[in-house]
Amino acid sequence: MNDSSWGAPQGAGYWGTPEMRAAPAGPAHDVHGAQQTRPMPIVPDVPDAGRDADAEPQSRDDRDGDAARISGPLFRDEMPQEPMSTPPPSPPQKKRAGRDLRAAIGVGVGLGAVIGVSLFIVKAVFIGVIVIAVVVGLWELTSRLQERKGIKAPLIPLAVGGAAMVVAGYARGPEGAWVAMALTALAVLVWRMTEPPEGYLKDVTAGVFAAFYVPFLATFVALLLTADDGSWRVLTFLVLTVVSDTGAYAVGWRFGKHKLAPRISPGKTREGLLGAVAFAMVAGALCMEFLIDGGAWWQGLLLGLAVAASATLGDLGESMIKRDLGIKDMGALLPGHGGIMDRLDSLLPTAPVVWLLLVLFVGSG
């Protein structure tokens, strides 16, 4: 609100009629003053060039009355306040990452080393890595469901069935994975029958969802590994997903202005999505050209586009789950990353997409 709204003075040095100037010192209680809602600073009378030189000089009593009105309170129980000085504008804050980047990079490098060694030395060891990630992910998901929603999805049949799904997919292909998935769902239904019927429907529904969301989708990584160049296919899958996430983060952090899905994940921007698409398409062209037998660069462009879309949707999907649960991370096992599920969110839905496109482009062998 500007000064004019409080009633600007009529002229420089104006203090009313001599009768008004001779008023006794103390609070002012005229009608106009009673309508004020907060004190207004009064500028003392300062002679200026505009004052009439022939004006009658004030008497001592007049000057004393003016001084008393200036120094006294404007209203009862209220002292005059000096005008507030406007603080200087603060310099723009530099953007900061939301997580500990040093810890995140260190954990990422460590995980990459474990995956690389197990992937290219003994494939069975890499299957064990997938199983461990699946079991830990199921534990995080079921724990958060019970803590935040009171949903008791049975962990034991989920963990055993999830491990069986991954192994069956690697050993028997898609048919083995589907059979293991069906048996896991049946085990969840039966296991929950040992407890009271209250909440049975929501518990088994959450259990079947968890079985599909974590181990079944992870089984497609094992299916990628069954091909002759399976190690390179898995590496392509991992590289494209990581590059997509990195491109989204880098471009969104630097240039992001327009929110992608503010109600689900306020940090994601449309500019970040464009960065994910661009990075993933370039990486896909290089991977298909140099890593995959019989692959072509244009196939890599399509593959990268599909990975950017599926990884983004997977990230948004888990953000939706976490927002419903009222949590930021699924766990705290990985410093700088959160939990295992916070790293699997974009990988899980991307695995079947990459597996299907590679089968279409170069076959399953």
What does this protein structure show overall?
With 365 residues, this protein is mostly helical. Among the domains are: 116-225, no CATH class; 227-364, no CATH class. The protein is built from twelve helices and two strands; from the N terminus they run ααααααααββαααα. The protein has helices at residues 18-21, 31-34, 60-71, 101-121, 123-149, 155-192, 200-225, 230-255, 270-290, 297-325, 340-344, 347-362, and strands spanning 259-261, 265-269. It has a two-stranded antiparallel ribbon with strand order 1-2. A hairpin with a 3-residue loop joins strand 1 (259-261) and strand 2. Helix 5 (123-149) crosses helix 6 (155-192). The termini are far apart. The model is unreliable at 1-41, 43-57, 59-64 and 66-78 (pLDDT under 50).
Short description:
63% of the residues lie in helices and 2% in strands. With 365 residues, the chain is mostly helical.
Structural class: mainly alpha
Order of helices and strands: HHHHHHHHEEHHHH
Number of strands: 2
**Poorly predicted residue ranges:** 1-41, 43-57, 59-64, 66-78
Radius of gyration: 36 Å
Helix content percent band: 55-70%
State the major sheet: 2 strands, antiparallel
- Helix segment tally: 12
Strand content: under 5%
Q: How far apart, in Å, are the first and last alpha carbons? A: 74 Å
What global shape is seen? globular
Mean pLDDT over the full residue set: 81
Strand order of the largest sheet: 1-2
Topology of helices and strands:
Blueprint: H1 18-21, H2 31-34, H3 60-71, H4 101-121, H5 123-149, H6 155-192, H7 200-225, H8 230-255, E1 259-261, E2 265-269, H9 270-290, H10 297-325, H11 340-344, H12 347-362
Antiparallel strand pairs: 1-2
